[in-house]
Design goal:
Layout (H helix, E strand, L loop, with lengths): L1 E9 L5 H9 L17 E7 L3 E7 L9 H16 L2 E7 L4 H10 L6 E6 L8 H10 L4 E6 L8 H11 L17 H16 L9 E9 L4 E9 L2 H8 L4 H18 L3 E9 L7 H6 L4
Parallel strand pairs: 1-3, 1-4, 4-5, 5-6, 8-9
Antiparallel strand pairs: 2-3, 7-8
Bound molecules: guanosine-5'-triphosphate (GTP) and magnesium ion.
Length: 290
């Protein structure tokens, strides 16, 4: 059977996480219209017993690091570069192709790479043909596949292209599992996603989420999480007038978490101020950015 690591790279907002979710058919990675949504390498497995196990990894969008948090994010990209059997290089059809090319070239990939032209549903006139001509001659481009991750167009074609490059081997992970990440990780991510969806500007970039308690009781699961921000003013915004905003975060996160773990959830959220946590080694570690 075919088995191996297929790692997803690209600029922020290219649709990497949307693609991972569409390929797996489950919401594994959080998604938002804002850049730098993903901060970890997120592994998810696609199993067809006896035929293949594809271990996909979503990674943070590639950027120049400004904080230690960004360095950790780019560390996640580097780890995914090291064990890839196949690389998917995601390009937003409306992005600047030169900038994508500069990044893909700098990755110095030694494994077969598929350029995945995403968001073809919203591509400006001529952009698709332009992308095909532009990437065709690039040394890293073994194949170009055009898709819409959002509308799930041409995904079987992409999977066929991936399988053609994937080595033969035994599965690395149990065929029952979807991921090697703990439930607590996904829970923290679902809370973080609501912050990306509810708040404009800079707030999401100053925020981390930490799960302090995850207790399975008879009738429900009790979860207590801290939302970490850098300043008191941000704490006030997250809480909102009479607690309106934090209530909204809690309600929509709880609905997602209940669906994910298939249990009733009691979710308690606190907001804590930790100045400059994004540059603090100990705090980064505490919040799961190793
Ligand atoms: N129109 C359209 N939008 C898409 C498509 N795929 C993703 N998007 C949108 O693009 C935005 C970014 O998607 P993400 O999946 O979070 O992008 P990402 O590459 O993981 O971004 P980072 O984690 O920030 O690097 C979201 O608003 C998605 O809904 C697509 O095929 N078509
Ligand atoms: Mg992402």
């Amino acid at each position: 059977m075919k088995s191996g690591f297929v790692n997803i790279f690209g600029r922020p907002n290219a649709g990497k996480s949307t693609l991972l979710n569409a390929l797996i058919g489950e919401k594994m990675a959080i998604v938002s219209p804002k850049v730098q949504t993903t901060r970890h390498r997120i592994k998810a497995f696609l199993n067809k017993p006896g035929e293949y196990q594809v271990i996909f990894s979503d990674t943070p969008g590639i950027i120049d690091p400004k904080y230690k948090l960004h360095e950790r994010m780019m560390g996640a990209v580097k780890s995914a570069l090291e064990d890839a059997d196949v690389a998917l290089l995601i390009v937003d059809a409306n992005d600047q192709f030169e900038e994508c090319d500069a990044i893909f070239g700098a990755l110095r990939l030694a494994v077969p790479s598929i350029v995945v032209l995403n968001k073809i549903d919203g591509a400006a006139n001529g952009k698709i043909a332009e992308a095909e001509a532009f990437f065709a001659g690039k040394p890293y481009c073994r194949k170009l596949v055009k898709i819409s991750a959002l509308q799930q167009v041409h995904l079987p074609k992409l999977l066929d292209a991936i399988l053609a490059f994937l080595p033969e081997g035994d599965p690395f992970y149990s065929e029952e599992d979807l991921s090697d990440m703990p439930t607590k990780f996904f829970v923290a991510e679902m809370i973080r996603e609501k912050i990306y969806q509810l708040f404009g500007d800079e707030i999401p970039y100053h925020t981390a989420v930490m799960i302090n308690e995850f207790k399975e009781k008879e009738s429900l699961v009790k979860i207590q999480a801290d939302i970490i921000v850098q300043r008191e003013t941000q704490k006030a915004i997250i809480i909102g007038d009479k607690g309106k905003m934090i209530k909204q975060i809690g309600m929509s996160a709880r609905a997602d978490i209940e669906q994910f773990i298939d249990r009733k959830v009691f979710l308690e959220l606190f907001v804590k101020v930790r100045p400059k946590w994004r540059d603090n080694e100990m705090q980064l570690k505490e919040y799961g950015y190793n």
